[in-house]
Specification:
By secondary structure, the chain is mainly alpha-helical. 74% of the residues lie in helices and 6% in strands. The protein has one domain (3-95). It has helices spanning 3-50, 55-77; strands at residues 85-87, 93-95. The two termini are 33 Å apart.
Length: 96
């Protein structure tokens, strides 16, 4: 295989690996958001059935919702999953 052909194959493999990585990052966010919605719905259902104060649901939903919002920012705006990446000190993200 010539050097140019080898380089093209490497580029295609890198592109495919990047696509898979981005898909996995989006999938991880979808699971996080889906879990949040299901669990908050579950807690609201419990609160409605018991008929008591629903304020405790807010103490769970608000901080978790903030975490989901930060996860969304990392996924949508930067295209990374900050849970699985870290900065190398020079401002670059790398796999941890």
């Amino acid at each position: 295989m010539t050097s140019t052909a080898h380089h093209q194959v490497e580029e295609r493999l890198e592109l495919e690996a990047g696509r898979r990585r981005r898909w996995k990052i989006r999938e991880d966010f979808a699971w996080h958001f889906g879990t949040y919605l299901i669990m908050v719905g579950f807690f609201l259902t419990i609160a409605l059935i018991v008929g008591g104060d629903m304020g405790w649901v807010l103490w769970i939903a608000a901080p978790w919702g903030l975490a989901v919002a930060f996860h969304a920012m990392a996924t949508i705006i930067t295209g990374t999953d900050l849970v699985h990446h870290h900065h190398d000190g020079a401002g670059h993200l790398s796999d941890s």
